[in-house]
Amino acid sequence: MARVSTIVTNFKSGEISPRLEGRIDLQKYNEAAQTLDNMLVFPSGGATRRPGTSFAGRSKDGGKVRLLNFEFSDEQAYVLELGANYIRFFKDGGILTEATKTISAITKANPAVVTATSHGFSNGDKVFISGVVGMTEVNNLEFTVAGVTTHTFELSGINSSAFTTYSSAGTAGKIVEVTTTYSVTDIFDINYAQSADVLYLAHKDHEPAKLTRTTTTSFTLADIDFVDGPYLDENITTTTITSNANTGTVTLTASADLFVAGHVGSLFQFRERVEVGHEAWAASTSYAQNDLVHHGGNLYKKTDSGSDSSGTQPPVHLDGTETYGIIDWQYQHSGTGFVKITAVTNATTATAVVQTHNFLVLPAVATAGTTQWSEGAFNIKNGFPRAVGFYEQRLYFAGTTAQPQSVFGSVSADFENHTSGTEDDAAINITIASDKVNVIKHLLPARFLQILTSSSEFTLSGGAGTQPVTPTNVNVLRETTFGSSNVRPLRAGNSTILIQKGQEKVKEITFDLDTDGLLGIDLTILADHIPRGGLTDMVWQQEPELILWFVHTDGRLIGLTYDRANAAIGWHTHSVGGSGIVESITAIPSGAEDQVYVSVKRTINGSTVRHIEFLKSLQFDGEITDAFFVDSGLTYSGSATSTITSLNHLEGETVSILADGSAHADKTVSGGSITLDRSASKVHVGYSYTSTIETLRLEGGANDGVSQGKIKRIHGVTVRFLESVGAEVGPDTSNLDRIPFRDSSMAMDTAVPIFSGDKEISFPSGYDNDARIFVRQTQPLPMTVTAIMRRSNTFDA
Known about the structure:
The chain is mainly β. The protein is 2% helix and 48% strand. Strands 1, 2, 4, 5, 60, 63 and 65 form a seven-stranded antiparallel sheet that branches. Strands 11-17-14-15-16-13-12 form a seven-stranded antiparallel sheet, with no helix packed on it. A six-stranded antiparallel sheet has the order 23-24-34-33-25-35. It is globular, with a radius of gyration of 33 Å.
């Protein structure tokens, strides 16, 4: 017996399945995620084709890079390109350069010689050239400067003899670049936290550093010169250290083997109890020149000559010399002083420089020899912190090799100062007590400071949870036991998203009122096959839609529509055009949207390169000519032409083309250009990519239960489109029919207008157990599917 039924597939919350009495099971979510390729799932917008990517530039020398965001404000945001021993910058869709110089000529010679009046470049500079008319082979590329004169420079290694003759225009700008000590193997383990114009960087094998923006096109990178500390716990052995002086460059001598080469650059602190070794200040007392007295825990020296009687007011200042009554009192120290090691002679001898931050001289115990010393926490010997984060006006570091479970917080509102003490604003040093060693990998500010380790998740807060953290008021609690990978977690809404240590699970960490603590939810249970193999990077795109983007080890982009407030969660996969391999991802604000940047490894003209690309806007305001659905693409907009130039980054590649809103035959880039079959005034050129929807196995329509496992046949399909042009529909990828979007009323010499509504298709399927429907888009055109209505026969016998 056959039963005829109509089944509606709606796209909501990542579900691509029949809505049967509101029932959704995990199997459907799993299969649903498998069936979306280059389609975004939106709760209210259906399944929408992923927008294309626009070419922004190449990585330096084609090397592997990591992309990071640097956001001073929504209007001043940059993408950092971290490569082997350098950082470069992208802004407003292109590589950042200093003020450009106008080009007035380029020779056809070997090497090419560029004329630009008073250009100011130096040999070895990297410059980016664009906007040249005529010799377009040099556009959108970077070159190394050589043979500099006042008004000319060579393009090193470039033979332009066969190039098109230079006509006019063009600019050259020196690429803004900062030198680093991070190797290509280091860059993906860098942790970071930003405060206004300063980005703090942490890596376990490098001194903590800061990248500072000094102007809109100028950045500097320097190791952090900490004002004081942090330090390990004070020495408890019998080993003494003696300094031969208390100011300037000194020699330190240890009573037992202590110093190693890894101490170079490290701080050592000396401590004394000033009330034990010195007299207390007293009123109406005679003091001679150079007498030392203590008051309020501070040590002072009389600097004026002769003997004088003190008045009634004791010295209380903490810097320099001030006069109290008729006596000049010079501040010495508050019981501590420290040095920085500059060289190690042997195990018992080192050279150091006295650091006079908040003291004038080292405590007297340093020159007498003392066991009361503390070793710096950050150095080559003990390792450097791998985690950094802000919380309650403090900058925290954590995760050194010697103290993998220790957290070091700065003085309040003084991020590079770790002066210890018991005052509320003093630095904080705490070690997590747990049943096993948990290497701290990340610090993430939220309601509490989240401490994410290799096997557990902790929170750090004030003692009562609502109180601020102080040296005497710190509470650390273990919350969950998932463990985090090296991929930096992020905040999405009011949740923390982390990739678990195995890199195949994504966890959502939220605050749970019932338990008054953190709760972990596995987001990959909805589609656990998607991240299988590992995820290596992620970013949160909040505008215009809520999407978590991930980079898979195989080079695909993985998307997770994540709207927790509306219970909308759906996975989707994305392969980029041209067989590109995505290696890194980040996002910065750009107008009304968050602009997602990716680094894509490609083979172009026989060479391995990395393209820096960004996802174009989802919005094209209903104008088909503005629809951008090509990858690593560029747009020409101007007078109608059949020659599109400046495509040097796609040399030798077959490209897809949208010309004045109509799909154009593919072309191959030669000499950085293509020739169209017809003239057009707005042209998008780039790699093609395919977007596919595959429905689940038909479940509804049986007379005596579900239709799965029964023979069935789909004989008709209606697809509901939104702002779409072009699509193919069929029972499998080998049997797809193109849906007509142009009718006889439309002029044949204009683009097909955007269509919203239903398209009814006669469906040529046979009889089988699955009864699936495929919808595919291969043209550089938009496609959004909001529903698929299937008419089918199910055979219950």
